[in-house]
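Figure 6 in text form: structure in, sequence out.
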């Protein structure tokens, strides 16, 4: 059992990590720069707080295991349950995905509600606490400079910064983390990274609809057929019988922030369903923008320059295009890796043994091989996207597009399982799928 673990950031990755660390440390302290939330509203430290967040199947499964009662609390808060293949319409690769029975269930809710539920469950754990309005400033190293003994933080309104002793530190600060700069400052170097530059942005707004969506569906997603089309949109239900609508565009073709312009943007989509639903809808607040310039993946498993008792998680390691909704499920899987490594190697192993740390980053890398590959595979379809195309990209793109545009319900069901991390991508390479793909192309 360790003494104190410090988690930098109390977003979803940070909260789930705190839950796991509470089994192995006497005290778990989260450092959060934002004020303590008094209601489920978007906070400054989460730029995507105003936008759509989907809870994929694998993420929901892991979170419920870590925090029993999670799903029940979501439902009480107003989260909406929908069955894939039946209640979710998805236009992808130039076709509507076929309907089918027996699809997985997914959950729709706002990001603030999701965080509130997680926060309340985690803070019921007696040895977990959050320091709000507190900014992480720096690390305090031992004499050799290869181990962190404390973190320096500054609480809003305090006269000076203070140092919190720590046996273990986890950086869960997301894309805004200054970890790489810290490594360069200590002359430790930085891990190799891949960068995929894409001029992508979206706008989102909360609406009240005057009529249900068509065909008794609960959500509609319209994705562009790349590279000819650049525009996308989605409409999903959230708590309070409201609807969150997002419009997005590649290559600088970004949606406006005024209602009329936003509606015109949705009108230009290849499919009319979302625009039709908004014709008599009421916009409840300002439309909020989000710009995504580049996906970044850092290969800590190939070069780990971090101090022995400092690890990273979540978007600090990899931040892919968030429009594909993978972030929460990926964070949950990474936290499960953290838990498994602590169970197998103990606190001392994870904090001191280079082999244990290597195992942690390698297991996370295997998760990212899938999520990163799925996300950049769509971004790289546009010639203007910068970044190295993976080996065999043209062939893999053809195969994936064939699967996404298949009319076979069994293929669609399997594709959903892969997208929700319920099964690995190799499960798509089976006789039934291959027969469907090649028959449709013949």
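Output sequence:
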């Amino acid at each position: 059992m360790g003494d104190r673990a410090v988690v930098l950031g109390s977003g979803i990755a940070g909260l789930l990590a705190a839950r796991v660390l509470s089994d192995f440390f006497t005290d778990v302290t989260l450092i959060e720069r934002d004020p303590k939330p008094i209601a489920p509203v978007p906070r400054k430290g989460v730029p995507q707080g105003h936008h759509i967040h989907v809870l994929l199947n694998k993420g929901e499964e892991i979170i419920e295991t870590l925090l029993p009662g999670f799903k029940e609390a979501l439902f009480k808060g107003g989260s909406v349950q929908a069955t894939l293949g039946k209640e979710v319409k998805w236009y992808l690769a130039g076709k509507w995905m076929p309907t089918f029975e027996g699809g997985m269930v997914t959950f729709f809710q706002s990001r603030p509600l999701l965080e509130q539920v997680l926060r309340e469950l985690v803070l019921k754990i007696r040895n977990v606490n959050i320091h709000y309005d507190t900014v992480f400033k720096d690390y305090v190293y031992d004499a050799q400079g290869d181990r962190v003994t404390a973190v320096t933080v500054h609480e809003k309104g305090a006269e000076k910064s203070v140092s919190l002793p720590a046996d273990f530190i986890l950086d869960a600060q997301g894309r805004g983390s200054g970890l790489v700069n810290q490594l360069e400052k200590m002359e430790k170097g930085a891990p190799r990274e891949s960068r995929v530059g894409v001029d992508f942005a979206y706008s989102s707004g909360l609406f009240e609809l005057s009529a249900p969506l068509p065909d008794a569906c609960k959500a509609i997603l319209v994705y562009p057929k790349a590279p000819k089309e650049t525009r996308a949109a989605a409409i999903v239900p959230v708590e309070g019988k409201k609807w969150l609508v997002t419009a997005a565009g590649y290559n600088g073709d970004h949606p406006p922030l005024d209602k009329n312009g936003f509606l015109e943007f949705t009108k230009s989509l290849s499919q009319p369903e979302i625009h039709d639903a908004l014709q008599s809808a009421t916009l409840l607040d300002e439309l909020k923008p989000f710009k995504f310039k580049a996906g970044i993946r850092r290969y800590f498993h190939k070069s780990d320059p971090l101090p022995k008792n400092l690890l990273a998680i979540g978007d600090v390691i990899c931040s892919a295009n968030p429009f594909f909704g993978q972030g929460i499920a990926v964070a949950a899987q990474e936290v499960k890796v953290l838990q498994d490594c602590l169970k197998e190697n103990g606190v001392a192993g994870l904090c001191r043994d280079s082999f244990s740390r290597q195992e942690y980053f390698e297991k996370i890398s295997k998760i990212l091989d899938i999520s990163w590959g799925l996300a950049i595979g769509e971004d790289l379809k546009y010639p203007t996207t910068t970044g190295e195309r993976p080996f065999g990209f043209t062939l893999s793109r053809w195969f994936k597009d064939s699967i996404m545009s298949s009319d076979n319900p069994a293929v669609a069901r399997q594709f959903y399982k892969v997208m929700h991390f319920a099964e690995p991508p190799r499960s798509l390479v089976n006789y039934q799928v291959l027969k469907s793909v090649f028959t449709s192309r013949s």
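Caption detail: The domain at 75-111+197-293 is CATH 3.30.9.100 (D-Amino Acid Oxidase; Chain A, domain 2).
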